[in-house]
Every structure is written in structure tokens, then in C-alpha cells.
């Protein structure tokens, strides 16, 4: 059951990666289809993460009565159908409704996916969270590739989206039969949380790390192409490469990251990730040309990729009796970072310089080093990097039906 539960959850991460990439990489086409002005576009773009935050807050309350597996099972189809609605709508009101549904559902989906991932990691007794996020990156690469095909062949948005939804939606529904829910873990001596709730003061360091990580991520996704073309003088074609390189190196880093956590512990891996990411921003800021700039974006992918999965895992460890609530609350800061990152870099770039703007996320990522001890596992505190399995939890779970 655990293997099927892990595989079905991994497919859910993959599906969400592909779905989200299909939306964000076709924003220019969506703008053209609906005639959204440049002034109005930021309103639409900001509404999605804001509503996702609302969805995540709602999930924190819902999981007190409904298993996370059920929330994930039904929020994922809503996300995919909302994507199809974005592609098939006929006017701006329909676009607004589809994006609102997408935002609210994606907040519930992101939170419930990571709840189940943390629960499975606890049951396995070793680090597996990075593998789920690696599959998300793989889905993102597939979605971005399919979006490129649609743009290259000038396909209507609904024509690009329909085959993907038609394949992934029923597959996700079938796979959801094997989601594994976990019961709250017994609270160990010295644990910060209890079944009574989440102490925000204790969670705050992880919220800051999540925010800073997504400021870095949104900087790459929103500004890498412009930076390479306008600052480093690359061709328009070459300017599309850094984000793809970033996604590939994110996939590679997450694919091998769990082994590092098992061998050395979460704290050294998080510290190394922060240092590598900061080095990437420094290289980008100082790059004399496009190829050196791409080397910097490569380092960014390898460094930033470990921070978010380990932040979710750390929240589960800090609040073993209330991990679902902690993860739902932490997930809000995913969207906070996304909202802050792009406008922050843009404003600094216009007022100062884009090279200088790259130093701001560099400093913010380095702040992670201050909070690295919040990622410590129980075995880290007592010496050694290996996480020990909870034998009482093995075999625990439900198919969520």
C-alpha cells in the first residue's frame, strides 16, 4: 500500500507541475486571446496567488474534518478543468472565473499534496520529500515543452490544453484511490507542536525561508529572459534558455537531494543549498556575458531546489501532532514570495539596476543560514544524519475513500 500511495502521490505532483507550467508559460497568448491590457494583466496575475493563499487557509480548517487525500482527490480535477476554462473561455468575465477557480483550488491542492508527502516521509522514516518535488519539476518541463509546441504551431489555447487534461485528469482520479493518509504522529519529548494547534512564532523561521525561496524562484521565472537579453546582450532565442536550464537543474538537484539528506542530515543540505543559490545570484549579477549568466542560473537551480521541500518536511517535524495545519499555514508563504519577488526585482531594476536587483534575492536566500537549525531532524539533534523509521507507523494509512 505504501508503494502505491507513494507512486500515486508522485503522479499528482507530476500532474500539477505540468498543469501549472501550461498556464504560466502561455500568459502572453492568454493576454492576446482575451485582450487583457498591460495595465490589467498584473491584477489577473496577482489574483491567482492571493486566492491560492485563501485556498490554503481554508484547507487548514477543512483538514480538521476531511482527510487531506479527499481534498487532493477533488481539488486536482478542479485545477485542470479551470485550466481548460482559461483556454476555452469567450470573454474576460469567463477568464476571471476560471482563474479564480484555479487559484482557490491550487491552494488546496498544494497544501494537501505536501501534507500527504510529509505523512509518507514520516511513515517511511527517511527523506523522500525531494523526490516528490523532483517529479513536479519533471511535470513542469513537460508542460513547458508542450506549451512551446502549442506556441510554435500557433494552436488555440484550448487545443493545447484539452489533450493534456483528457489524459491526466482521469489518470489522476484513478491514482487517487491509493493516496495514503497518515494519523498525527505521537508528540515526542521536546517537540514544539501538539495536536492542539500550531504556534506561529515557532513556524515563523520556516515561513521566512519559504518566502525567500520563492522570491528567488520567481526572480528566475519572471526575469531571467529579460536579464539575459537586455543586460547581458544575448539573442532573443538564447534568452529563452536560462529558465529551461533552471528547471532541468532543479530536477537533477531534487532527484539526488534525498540521498544527501539521508547521508548528512537536513541542516547541512539546506545550508549548502542556500550557499549555492547565493553564489548563483552573485554570478548572474557579475556576469560579463550571456554564457556566464546561464552558469549562474544553473547554480540557482541546484541551490534553490532543496529549500522548499525541506521546509515542508521541517514543518511536519516541528509540529508532529498538528503537521497538516502547519503545512497549510506554511504553504501561504509560497504565494507571498511569488507575489513579492517579481515586483521587487522589477522596481529595483528600474530604479537602480537589474544587476543590483539580483543581489537582493541573494541576500534573502543567505538569511536561510540563520534559520538552518529549524530544519534539524531528531537524529540531527542527537548526532548523525540518518532519520530513523517510526516502527509504530509502518503499515499505517488509508486509501482516503
Automatic annotation (TrEMBL):
Basic and acidic residues: bias regions: 381-393
Membrane topology label: Multi-pass membrane protein
Organism for this UniProt entry: Streptomyces fuscichromogenes
Keywords per UniProt: Membrane, Transmembrane, Transmembrane helix
PROSITE patterns recorded: MFS
Region (Disordered): 381-401
Source organism, top-level taxon: Bacteria
Pfam families (UniProt xref): MFS_1 (PF07690)
InterPro entries with a match to the protein in the record: MFS (IPR011701), MFS_dom (IPR020846), MFS_trans_sf (IPR036259), MFS_Transporter (IPR051788)
Domain Major facilitator superfamily (MFS) profile: residue ranges: 203-401
Cellular compartments per GO CC: plasma membrane
Name recorded for this polypeptide: MFS transporter
Chain segments annotated as transmembrane: 39-58, 95-116, 128-149, 155-174, 195-215, 269-291, 297-319, 326-346, 352-372
Lineage: Bacteria, Bacillati, Actinomycetota, Actinomycetes, Kitasatosporales
Subcellular location: Cell membrane
Gene Ontology MF terms: transmembrane transporter activity
Amino acid at each position: 500500500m505504501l508503494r502505491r500511495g507513494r507512486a500515486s502521490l508522485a503522479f499528482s505532483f507530476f500532474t500539477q507541475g505540468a498543469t501549472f507550467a501550461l498556464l504560466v508559460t502561455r500568459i502572453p497568448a492568454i493576454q492576446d486571446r482575451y485582450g487583457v491590457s498591460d495595465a490589467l494583466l498584473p491584477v489577473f496575475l496577482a489574483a491567482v496567488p492571493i486566492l491560492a493563499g485563501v485556498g490554503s487557509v481554508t484547507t487548514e480548517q477543512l483538514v480538521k474534518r476531511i482527510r487531506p487525500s479527499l481534498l487532493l482527490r477533488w481539488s486536482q480535477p478542479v485545477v485542470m478543468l479551470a485550466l481548460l476554462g482559461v483556454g476555452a473561455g469567450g470573454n474576460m468575465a469567463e477568464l476571471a472565473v476560471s482563474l479564480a477557480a484555479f487559484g482557490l483550488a491550487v491552494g488546496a491542492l498544494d497544501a494537501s499534496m505536501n501534507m500527504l508527502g510529509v505523512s509518507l516521509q514520516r511513515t517511511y522514516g527517511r527523506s523522500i520529500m525531494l523526490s516528490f518535488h523532483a517529479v513536479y519539476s519533471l511535470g513542469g518541463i513537460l508542460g513547458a515543452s508542450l506549451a512551446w509546441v502549442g506556441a510554435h504551431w500557433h494552436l488555440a489555447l484550448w487545443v493545447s490544453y484539452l489533450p493534456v487534461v483528457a489524459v491526466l485528469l482521469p489518470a489522476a482520479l484513478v491514482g487517487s484511490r491509493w493516496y495514503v493518509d497518515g494519523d498525527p504522529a505521537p508528540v515526542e519529548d521536546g517537540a514544539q507542536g501538539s495536536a492542539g494547534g500550531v504556534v506561529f512564532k515557532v513556524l515563523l523561521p520556516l515561513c521566512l525561508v519559504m518566502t525567500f525561496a520563492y522570491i528567488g524562484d520567481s526572480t528566475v521565472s519572471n526575469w531571467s529572459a529579460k536579464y539575459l537579453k537586455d543586460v547581458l546582450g544575448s539573442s532573443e532565442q538564447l534568452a529563452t534558455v536560462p529558465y529551461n536550464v533552471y528547471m532541468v537543474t532543479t530536477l537533477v538537484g531534487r532527484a539526488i537531494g534525498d540521498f544527501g539528506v539521508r547521508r548528512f542530515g537536513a541542516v547541512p543540505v539546506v545550508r549548502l543549498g542556500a550557499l549555492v543559490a547565493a553564489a548563483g545570484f552573485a554570478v548572474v549579477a557579475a556576469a560579463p556575458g550571456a554564457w556566464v549568466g546561464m552558469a549562474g542560473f544553473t547554480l540557482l537551480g541546484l541551490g534553490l531546489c532543496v529549500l522548499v521541500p525541506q521546509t515542508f518536511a521541517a514543518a511536519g517535524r516541528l509540529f508532529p501532532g498538528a503537521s497538516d495545519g502547519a503545512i497549510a499555514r506554511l504553504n501561504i508563504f509560497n504565494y507571498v514570495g511569488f507575489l513579492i519577488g517579481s515586483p521587487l526585482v522589477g522596481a529595483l531594476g528600474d530604479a537602480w539596476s537589474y544587476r543590483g536587483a539580483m543581489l537582493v534575492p541573494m541576500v534573502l536566500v543567505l538569511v536561510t543560514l540563520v534559520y538552518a537549525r529549524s530544519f534539524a531532524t531528531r537524529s540531527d539533534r542527537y548526532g548523525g544524519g540518518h532519520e530513523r523509521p517510526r516502527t509504530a507507523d509502518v503499515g499505517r494509512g488509508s486509501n482516503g475513500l
